[in-house]
Design a protein that fits this description.
Layout: E1 3-13, E2 19-29, E3 33-37, H1 44-51, E4 59-64, E5 67-68, H2 73-79, E6 80-83, H3 95-105, H4 112-121, H5 137-149, E7 155-159, H6 167-182, E8 186-190, H7 194-200, E9 203-208, E10 211-217, H8 218-225, E11 228-234, E12 251-252, E13 258-263, H9 272-281, E14 286-293, H10 296-306
Parallel strand pairs: 3-8, 3-9, 6-7, 7-8
Antiparallel strand pairs: 1-2, 1-4, 4-5, 9-10, 11-13, 11-14, 12-13
Helix pairs in contact: 3-5
Amino acid sequence: MPKVIQVQSLGKIYAGGFEALRDVDLDIEDGEILALLGPNGAGKTTLISIICGIVTPTAGAVRVAGHDIIDDYRVTRQLIGLVPQELTLGAFDTVWNTVSFSRGLFGQQPNPAYIEQLLKDLSLWDKRENELRTLSGGMKRRVLIAKALSHEPRILFLDEPTAGVDVELRQDMWRLVRGLNESGVTIILTTHYIEEAEEIADRVGVINDGKLLLVDDKQRLMHQLGRKQLLIELKHPIDSLPAALAEYGLERSDDGTCLTYTYDTQGERTGITALLQALHDAGLALRDLKSSQSSLEEIFVSLVSNR
Protein backbone atom coordinates (compact mmCIF):
# COMPACT_ATOMS: atom_id res chain seq x y z
CA MET A 1 0.00 0.00 0.00
CA PRO A 2 1.44 3.47 -0.91
CA LYS A 3 2.69 5.76 1.85
CA VAL A 4 0.71 8.99 2.13
CA ILE A 5 2.94 10.36 4.94
CA GLN A 6 6.64 9.63 5.44
CA VAL A 7 8.41 10.82 8.60
CA GLN A 8 12.18 10.39 8.70
CA SER A 9 14.52 10.94 11.68
CA LEU A 10 12.21 13.62 13.05
CA GLY A 11 13.31 15.58 16.11
CA LYS A 12 12.05 18.61 17.99
CA ILE A 13 13.79 20.55 20.76
CA TYR A 14 11.87 23.52 22.16
CA ALA A 15 13.39 26.68 23.55
CA GLY A 16 14.80 25.86 26.97
CA GLY A 17 16.11 22.49 25.83
CA PHE A 18 13.04 20.26 26.17
CA GLU A 19 13.32 17.42 23.65
CA ALA A 20 9.78 16.62 22.60
CA LEU A 21 10.63 14.19 19.77
CA ARG A 22 13.70 12.04 19.23
CA ASP A 23 14.58 10.41 15.91
CA VAL A 24 11.03 9.43 14.93
CA ASP A 25 10.50 7.34 11.80
CA LEU A 26 6.94 6.67 10.70
CA ASP A 27 5.22 5.67 7.45
CA ILE A 28 1.46 6.14 7.27
CA GLU A 29 -0.35 4.17 4.60
CA ASP A 30 -2.89 5.71 2.28
CA GLY A 31 -6.44 4.96 3.43
CA GLU A 32 -5.63 3.48 6.85
CA ILE A 33 -6.77 4.45 10.35
CA LEU A 34 -3.74 4.85 12.62
CA ALA A 35 -4.12 5.38 16.38
CA LEU A 36 -1.27 7.04 18.26
CA LEU A 37 -1.24 6.14 21.95
CA GLY A 38 0.91 7.64 24.66
CA PRO A 39 0.73 9.34 28.07
CA ASN A 40 0.50 13.11 28.47
CA GLY A 41 3.70 14.79 27.30
CA ALA A 42 4.76 11.79 25.21
CA GLY A 43 5.07 13.85 22.00
CA LYS A 44 1.83 12.96 20.20
CA THR A 45 0.64 16.54 19.68
CA THR A 46 4.12 17.74 18.68
CA LEU A 47 4.34 15.02 16.03
CA ILE A 48 0.91 15.90 14.63
CA SER A 49 1.66 19.63 14.74
CA ILE A 50 4.86 19.19 12.72
CA ILE A 51 3.16 17.09 10.05
CA CYS A 52 0.36 19.67 9.81
CA GLY A 53 2.85 22.54 9.42
CA ILE A 54 2.09 24.24 12.72
CA VAL A 55 5.42 23.48 14.44
CA THR A 56 8.84 23.58 12.77
CA PRO A 57 11.00 20.48 13.31
CA THR A 58 14.54 20.72 14.66
CA ALA A 59 15.74 17.73 12.64
CA GLY A 60 14.49 15.29 10.04
CA ALA A 61 11.99 15.53 7.21
CA VAL A 62 8.30 14.90 6.53
CA ARG A 63 6.66 14.27 3.16
CA VAL A 64 2.91 14.27 2.54
CA ALA A 65 1.78 12.61 -0.69
CA GLY A 66 5.34 13.02 -1.93
CA HIS A 67 5.56 16.74 -1.06
CA ASP A 68 7.94 18.18 1.53
CA ILE A 69 6.00 19.94 4.31
CA ILE A 70 8.39 22.93 4.28
CA ASP A 71 9.16 23.37 0.58
CA ASP A 72 5.60 22.61 -0.55
CA TYR A 73 3.69 23.69 2.54
CA ARG A 74 0.72 25.12 0.62
CA VAL A 75 0.14 21.79 -1.13
CA THR A 76 0.59 19.64 1.98
CA ARG A 77 -1.56 21.85 4.20
CA GLN A 78 -4.44 21.65 1.73
CA LEU A 79 -4.30 17.86 1.86
CA ILE A 80 -4.69 17.83 5.66
CA GLY A 81 -7.54 18.53 8.05
CA LEU A 82 -6.81 18.94 11.77
CA VAL A 83 -9.12 18.73 14.76
CA PRO A 84 -7.07 20.15 17.67
CA GLN A 85 -7.53 19.39 21.36
CA GLU A 86 -8.36 22.97 22.33
CA LEU A 87 -11.71 24.59 21.59
CA THR A 88 -10.18 27.44 19.57
CA LEU A 89 -13.21 29.22 18.11
CA GLY A 90 -14.46 32.78 17.82
CA ALA A 91 -17.50 34.01 19.69
CA PHE A 92 -19.87 35.98 17.49
CA ASP A 93 -19.74 34.27 14.10
CA THR A 94 -22.36 31.70 13.14
CA VAL A 95 -21.72 28.01 12.64
CA TRP A 96 -22.48 28.23 8.91
CA ASN A 97 -20.21 31.21 8.34
CA THR A 98 -17.23 29.86 10.27
CA VAL A 99 -17.30 26.50 8.46
CA SER A 100 -17.79 28.14 5.06
CA PHE A 101 -14.97 30.60 5.79
CA SER A 102 -12.62 27.71 6.67
CA ARG A 103 -13.34 26.16 3.28
CA GLY A 104 -12.47 29.43 1.57
CA LEU A 105 -9.19 29.71 3.44
CA PHE A 106 -7.95 26.66 1.56
CA GLY A 107 -8.91 28.12 -1.80
CA GLN A 108 -11.88 25.84 -2.34
CA GLN A 109 -14.86 27.08 -4.34
CA PRO A 110 -18.10 27.57 -2.36
CA ASN A 111 -20.15 24.39 -2.09
CA PRO A 112 -23.25 25.00 0.05
CA ALA A 113 -24.56 21.47 -0.59
CA TYR A 114 -21.37 19.92 0.83
CA ILE A 115 -21.40 22.21 3.89
CA GLU A 116 -25.06 21.40 4.47
CA GLN A 117 -24.46 17.66 4.38
CA LEU A 118 -21.41 18.02 6.63
CA LEU A 119 -23.40 19.94 9.25
CA LYS A 120 -26.19 17.37 9.07
CA ASP A 121 -23.72 14.51 9.53
CA LEU A 122 -22.43 16.24 12.68
CA SER A 123 -25.92 17.07 14.02
CA LEU A 124 -25.19 20.79 13.57
CA TRP A 125 -27.74 21.64 10.90
CA ASP A 126 -30.30 23.04 13.35
CA LYS A 127 -27.51 25.17 14.91
CA ARG A 128 -26.25 26.63 11.62
CA GLU A 129 -27.44 30.18 12.39
CA ASN A 130 -26.36 30.08 16.05
CA GLU A 131 -23.45 32.20 17.22
CA LEU A 132 -20.53 30.09 18.43
CA ARG A 133 -20.64 31.67 21.90
CA THR A 134 -24.09 30.16 22.48
CA LEU A 135 -22.98 26.57 21.87
CA SER A 136 -22.14 23.94 24.47
CA GLY A 137 -18.66 22.44 24.66
CA GLY A 138 -19.80 19.34 22.78
CA MET A 139 -21.33 21.42 19.99
CA LYS A 140 -18.15 23.49 19.70
CA ARG A 141 -16.22 20.25 19.30
CA ARG A 142 -18.53 19.33 16.42
CA VAL A 143 -17.83 22.70 14.79
CA LEU A 144 -14.08 22.04 15.01
CA ILE A 145 -14.58 18.77 13.15
CA ALA A 146 -16.71 20.51 10.53
CA LYS A 147 -14.00 23.16 10.05
CA ALA A 148 -11.34 20.46 9.62
CA LEU A 149 -13.45 18.73 6.96
CA SER A 150 -14.68 21.88 5.23
CA HIS A 151 -12.06 21.76 2.44
CA GLU A 152 -12.51 18.00 1.81
CA PRO A 153 -9.02 16.92 2.95
CA ARG A 154 -7.41 13.65 1.95
CA ILE A 155 -5.90 13.19 5.42
CA LEU A 156 -7.61 13.91 8.75
CA PHE A 157 -5.83 14.31 12.10
CA LEU A 158 -7.91 13.99 15.28
CA ASP A 159 -5.99 15.08 18.38
CA GLU A 160 -7.83 13.71 21.44
CA PRO A 161 -11.16 14.36 19.67
CA THR A 162 -13.39 12.74 22.31
CA ALA A 163 -11.75 14.20 25.42
CA GLY A 164 -14.51 15.56 27.64
CA VAL A 165 -17.35 15.02 25.17
CA ASP A 166 -20.61 13.19 25.68
CA VAL A 167 -21.28 9.63 24.58
CA GLU A 168 -23.64 10.73 21.79
CA LEU A 169 -20.99 12.91 20.15
CA ARG A 170 -18.41 10.18 20.53
CA GLN A 171 -20.64 7.71 18.69
CA ASP A 172 -21.50 10.28 16.00
CA MET A 173 -17.82 11.05 15.52
CA TRP A 174 -16.77 7.43 15.05
CA ARG A 175 -19.60 6.85 12.59
CA LEU A 176 -18.35 9.86 10.63
CA VAL A 177 -14.74 8.63 10.85
CA ARG A 178 -15.68 5.21 9.49
CA GLY A 179 -17.64 6.81 6.66
CA LEU A 180 -14.75 9.11 5.75
CA ASN A 181 -12.30 6.23 5.83
CA GLU A 182 -14.53 4.15 3.58
CA SER A 183 -14.48 7.06 1.11
CA GLY A 184 -10.66 6.96 1.07
CA VAL A 185 -9.68 9.50 3.74
CA THR A 186 -6.63 8.55 5.82
CA ILE A 187 -7.33 9.00 9.56
CA ILE A 188 -4.70 9.58 12.26
CA LEU A 189 -5.98 9.96 15.80
CA THR A 190 -4.58 10.31 19.28
CA THR A 191 -6.77 9.15 22.11
CA HIS A 192 -6.83 8.34 25.80
CA TYR A 193 -9.79 6.02 25.19
CA ILE A 194 -7.77 2.97 24.27
CA GLU A 195 -10.88 0.87 23.76
CA GLU A 196 -11.77 3.21 20.89
CA ALA A 197 -8.39 2.64 19.26
CA GLU A 198 -8.88 -1.08 19.74
CA GLU A 199 -12.25 -0.90 18.00
CA ILE A 200 -11.56 1.48 15.10
CA ALA A 201 -7.84 1.48 14.24
CA ASP A 202 -6.09 -0.62 11.59
CA ARG A 203 -2.64 0.01 13.10
CA VAL A 204 -1.46 1.28 16.47
CA GLY A 205 1.61 3.36 17.32
CA VAL A 206 2.88 3.83 20.87
CA ILE A 207 4.85 6.98 21.80
CA ASN A 208 6.58 7.63 25.10
CA ASP A 209 9.15 10.23 26.12
CA GLY A 210 9.45 11.53 22.56
CA LYS A 211 10.29 8.11 21.10
CA LEU A 212 8.09 6.02 18.86
CA LEU A 213 8.27 2.64 20.58
CA LEU A 214 6.50 0.66 17.89
CA VAL A 215 3.94 0.78 15.09
CA ASP A 216 2.16 -2.39 14.10
CA ASP A 217 -1.05 -3.92 12.87
CA LYS A 218 -3.50 -3.92 15.76
CA GLN A 219 -4.36 -7.59 15.62
CA ARG A 220 -0.74 -8.66 15.16
CA LEU A 221 0.31 -6.45 18.06
CA MET A 222 -2.26 -7.98 20.35
CA HIS A 223 -1.29 -11.46 19.18
CA GLN A 224 2.47 -11.02 19.56
CA LEU A 225 2.61 -8.92 22.73
CA GLY A 226 -0.58 -10.02 24.41
CA ARG A 227 -0.90 -12.75 26.98
CA LYS A 228 -3.47 -15.48 26.93
CA GLN A 229 -4.94 -16.87 30.08
CA LEU A 230 -6.84 -20.04 30.80
CA LEU A 231 -9.31 -19.75 33.67
CA ILE A 232 -9.87 -23.15 35.29
CA GLU A 233 -12.97 -23.46 37.45
CA LEU A 234 -12.81 -26.37 39.90
CA LYS A 235 -15.72 -28.44 41.09
CA HIS A 236 -14.36 -28.35 44.63
CA PRO A 237 -12.24 -25.57 46.22
CA ILE A 238 -8.66 -26.28 47.28
CA ASP A 239 -6.73 -24.74 50.18
CA SER A 240 -3.38 -24.87 48.37
CA LEU A 241 -1.85 -25.95 45.08
CA PRO A 242 -0.58 -29.54 44.88
CA ALA A 243 3.21 -29.67 44.60
CA ALA A 244 2.93 -31.45 41.25
CA LEU A 245 1.41 -28.29 39.73
CA ALA A 246 4.12 -25.88 40.91
CA GLU A 247 5.90 -25.78 37.52
CA TYR A 248 2.86 -24.28 35.78
CA GLY A 249 2.86 -21.01 37.71
CA LEU A 250 -0.85 -21.22 38.47
CA GLU A 251 -2.61 -18.48 40.42
CA ARG A 252 -5.24 -19.62 42.90
CA SER A 253 -8.28 -17.46 43.60
CA ASP A 254 -8.95 -16.37 47.21
CA ASP A 255 -11.82 -18.84 47.59
CA GLY A 256 -9.79 -21.68 46.01
CA THR A 257 -12.38 -22.39 43.31
CA CYS A 258 -10.43 -21.01 40.31
CA LEU A 259 -6.93 -21.41 38.90
CA THR A 260 -5.45 -19.07 36.29
CA TYR A 261 -2.83 -20.28 33.83
CA THR A 262 -0.93 -17.69 31.75
CA TYR A 263 0.83 -18.85 28.62
CA ASP A 264 2.74 -17.50 25.63
CA THR A 265 0.80 -17.57 22.37
CA GLN A 266 4.08 -17.49 20.40
CA GLY A 267 5.60 -20.54 22.04
CA GLU A 268 5.89 -23.87 20.25
CA ARG A 269 3.69 -25.40 22.94
CA THR A 270 1.16 -23.76 25.20
CA GLY A 271 1.48 -26.46 27.86
CA ILE A 272 -2.29 -26.72 28.20
CA THR A 273 -2.48 -30.41 27.35
CA ALA A 274 0.17 -31.29 29.92
CA LEU A 275 -1.51 -29.04 32.51
CA LEU A 276 -4.89 -30.70 32.07
CA GLN A 277 -3.28 -34.11 32.49
CA ALA A 278 -1.47 -32.88 35.63
CA LEU A 279 -4.75 -31.58 37.05
CA HIS A 280 -6.35 -34.97 36.44
CA ASP A 281 -3.42 -36.79 38.02
CA ALA A 282 -3.67 -34.50 41.07
CA GLY A 283 -7.32 -35.52 41.50
CA LEU A 284 -8.77 -32.08 40.70
CA ALA A 285 -12.15 -32.21 38.95
CA LEU A 286 -12.96 -29.37 36.53
CA ARG A 287 -16.26 -27.52 36.28
CA ASP A 288 -15.41 -25.16 33.40
CA LEU A 289 -12.60 -23.72 31.24
CA LYS A 290 -12.43 -20.22 29.78
CA SER A 291 -9.71 -18.40 27.85
CA SER A 292 -9.04 -14.65 27.54
CA GLN A 293 -6.68 -12.42 25.54
CA SER A 294 -4.87 -9.30 26.82
CA SER A 295 -6.50 -6.04 25.81
CA LEU A 296 -4.75 -3.28 23.90
CA GLU A 297 -4.80 -1.21 27.08
CA GLU A 298 -2.85 -3.85 29.01
CA ILE A 299 -0.26 -4.04 26.22
CA PHE A 300 0.06 -0.23 26.13
CA VAL A 301 0.53 0.06 29.88
CA SER A 302 3.09 -2.74 29.82
CA LEU A 303 5.09 -1.11 26.99
CA VAL A 304 5.16 2.32 28.63
CA SER A 305 5.96 0.92 32.08
CA ASN A 306 8.82 -1.20 30.75
CA ARG A 307 10.38 1.82 29.04
